[in-house]
Amino acid sequence: MDFFFVVFFLIQFIRKRLNTAVVLPEWDKKLLLARYTAIGLLAAFYMLNESTLVHWLWYPFVLSILYTIYKEKDFESIRSTVQSLFPFIAVSFLGDLFKLISPTQYKEYHDYFDVAKAFAFLWMLALWYNFQKQQKVLDKEREEQKRRDEENEAKKASLEYLVAERTQELTIQTMELQKALDELKATQNQLIQSEKMASLGELTAGIAHEIQNPLNFVNNFSEVSVELCQELEEEIKKTEIPDADKEYIAGIISDLSQNQQKITHHGKRADSIVKGMLQHSRTSSGKKEPTDINALADEYMRLAYHGLRAKDKEFNATLTTDFDSTIGKIEVMPQDLGRVFLNLFTNAFYAVAEKKKLNKDNPTFENYKPEVKITTKLFGGKLYIRVSDNGTGMPESVKSKIFQPFFTTKPTGQGTGLGLSMSYDIVTKTHEGVLDVSSKAGEGTEFKITLPVS
Amino acid sequence: MKILVVDDEPDVKALFEQRFRREIRNGEFQFSFAFSGEDAIQYLEGHASEIVMILSDINMPGMSGIELLKTIRKDHPMAPPIVMMITAYGDTDNYEQAMKFGADDFLTKPVNFTELKQKLQERYEG
């Protein structure tokens, strides 16, 4: 009877503590089987006459259960609890053994055994109770630990989120800074460039002013000298000297007059260069007025084309226009901007003509079609004008100098080197725009004018 | 007609004398020269009534042509000579200033002598 309770509760205890029904289903089945066996043994004890034999059967049964619990790893956590059964089993076994060996003497000590058994049972219960209590404390601690872990986990997650967020912010900041730095560098380059151009322009204008005055004298005096020569000629005729002498003197005067004319001619040439230089400092007398940019560009394109055609009958080029018809009229200084167009187109036509001339005998260029193109586009409050050609293009070394006054690649006498530097001034200063160039040697050049539209 | 030419370049004298050789010989024009604004003022003190016309450069060291013009207009309001300004800087600023202070005409360098001769003769005849 007592064994039944012990076994029954032990099994109950194991199933509950280890939650075998869920965690260890295999063992659960075996435990249930053990329970039925215990019930069977109990039934057999009461129903069969062989109660002593059945009673002894409890020992192998209980020991086999304990052995299993001791041996199997799955039951490690409750091993100590099982130990509490040992005193009870030992006392019962000793009592039963004594009863078997000498039943008469057993009767005499029967009470002692019962008391010992009761103590062992109580001992077992006390241990169980204690274990249960400890288990509860442990459970509570485990619960607490779990809660703390979860809390830490949550904190960790939130920290990681914060770190990620901060990292993201820093990355964005870095990118923004990098962008700002790039922009600054670009602006700085632009500033240096425009400062360079401005000081060169001023220098050029300064030199021009200094040269203009003496040059005026050269021109004026040479002109007046021509007149004087004529007068001299007339006066000589009046004098009475031999005709041979008259002729000789007339010859000298004629040479003198010719020399003066040469001086005047070259002086005028120098004067036109100086005039070009002076354009740099000229505070533009023109006023901004609403202008049809497309018509202006077209006009100067044709002007430049026919200008070159007049000098070179062989020359031919395709003129392509891609005008934005929505531009309407824009406030510019038409004469100044016209000069810019004229310079850009003249250069473009020169570049395609040169390419054709240079590759006259080259069969790969047999189908070369010189083309000069103008594109206008109004977009986002800005007017974009592109003048491109498929001419000779230029290397980087030339490209970096083209806006400097007096820089020219044309042969002496054919270019003053002032066209583009002036165009640069007109676009950037008077119109507050941007003049930019891109070019590839041997392939072509594109000039880009960007004008703000108020 | 007596004309005073004011310019800091001494060669202007030779140039004018040669350019207007015939007119000078005919007695149409009579030229005097001053090589600075101060010189011109000094000259005018003695010859104010003789001078009919003044041709003055604007950009001169010391007293500029504009200052000279102002002084002339202030000191001789009653018998004002004709004043023509000549400058290498043909910009609007100079032109407007000259006109504001009472210049009669405005020429740019290099001087077109044919045009100048014509203008002078118009004044002479008128």
> Could you name the CATH homologous superfamily of chain B?
Response regulator
Number of strands of chain B: 5
Q: Which range does the strand content of chain B fall in?
A: 15-25%
Are there runs of chain A of 5+ residues with pLDDT below 50, and where?
none
Secondary-structure blueprint:
The complex is a heterodimer of chains A (about 450) and B (about 130).
Chain A: H1 2-18, H2 20-23, H3 25-47, H4 51-71, H5 79-83, H6 85-101, H7 103-238, H8 243-278, E1 289-292, H9 293-311, E2 318-322, E3 329-332, H10 334-358, E4 371-379, E5 382-389, H11 396-399, H12 419-430, E6 434-440, E7 444-452
Parallel strand pairs in A: 2-4
Antiparallel strand pairs in A: 1-3, 4-5, 5-7, 6-7
Chain B: E1 2-6, H1 11-19, H2 21-26, E2 30-34, H3 37-47, E3 51-57, H4 65-75, E4 82-87, H5 92-100, E5 105-108, H6 113-125
Parallel strand pairs in B: 1-2, 1-3, 3-4, 4-5
Helix pairs in contact in B: 3-4
Describe the structure.
The complex is a heterodimer of chains A (454) and B (126). Chain A is 70% helix and 10% strand. Chain A has twelve helices and seven strands. Chain A has helices spanning 2-18, 20-23, 25-47, 51-71, 79-83, 85-101, 103-238, 243-278, 293-311, 334-358, 396-399, 419-430, and strands spanning 289-292, 318-322, 329-332, 371-379, 382-389, 434-440, 444-452. In chain A, α1 (2-18) runs antiparallel to α3, α3 (25-47) packs antiparallel against α4 (51-71) and α6 runs antiparallel to α7 (103-238). With 126 residues, chain B is α/β, with parallel strands linked by helices. Chain B has a single domain (2-113), classed as Rossmann fold. Helices cover 47% and strands 21% of the residues of chain B. A five-stranded parallel beta sheet of chain B has the order 2-1-3-4-5, sandwiched between helices. In chain B, α3 runs parallel beside α4 (65-75). The radius of gyration of chain B is 13 Å and the shape is globular. The mean pLDDT of chain B is 87. Classes of the chains: A alpha+beta (454), B alpha/beta (126). Chain A binds chain B through residues 209, 212-213, 215-217, 219-221, 223-224, 228, 271, 282-283, 285, and chain B through 9, 11, 14-15, 18-19, 88, 90-93, 109-111, 113.
